[in-house]
Structure formats: structure tokens, C-alpha cells
Here is the input.
Amino acid sequence: MVKVTKSVSIEIEKDGQKITLNADEIKDIRRQLDAAIREKGKQIQARLKVKQKAKMRSSAHAVTVYHMSDEKKKEIINNVNKKLSGTPKTLSALLDGVSYVPNYLPIIRKMVESQQNVAKKQIGKRILYYIKDKSA
Here is the structure.
């Protein structure tokens, strides 16, 4: 009867020193290296997430201010006031017929919302503007 067993060993020799590793020791070293690599990867991922969050926070605070001439503001407000009615309309519908730069939309929105006779209601993502009832 012949018995076959797995037997693997590694011999490393350098500068007169000799190390012999058997299969169990190799598995143990491999397991430890895998764990160390995974832990290092988690640390790197954590650092990247912190950097990305910091980048997002800093970009959120960096608000670009756009300046619009008084004439343009008057033209836009006059056009919006002409189109305002009791039926709710989106800002883009109110701005139809007047030229504007899309970067000015936050300023235009503030101008429209700051008027006392204008009410707004939100339906889903859209904000609709209309004239407030004078009786209320």
C-alpha cells in the first residue's frame, strides 16, 4: 500500500541564513498578508472618502456671485409681472420672451420670490409662481 501526502516546503537562503516553510506555515503567512492588504485598502478607501467629502463641502460653500445690470433686472421683473396671473406657472414660463443667462436663474428666482404679491407652491421638483389672492 502506498500513501500519498501533500508536502510542500519552501527554502529561502540569503547571506548564510536558511528558512524552511511548510504548507501550514505558508497558508498562515498568506492569510496574514491578505488581512494586512485588506486592512490597508480599507484605510486608503477611508482617506479617499474623507477627501471627497471635504472637497464636496468646500465646493458647496464656494458660491459664485453673478451681477446683473439694473436695466436687465427691470426688464425681467416687468416681463414676469406681465405674465403672472392666478394660474400657477413655472419660472421658465414666466421668463418666456426675455433673454437671460442661465447662471442668473438663482438671482431671478430670488427677485421673483421677494415680491409681496407673488406666491409659490411646489409640485414635485417644480416650483410654480402665481399672484396671491388680495382677499386672503
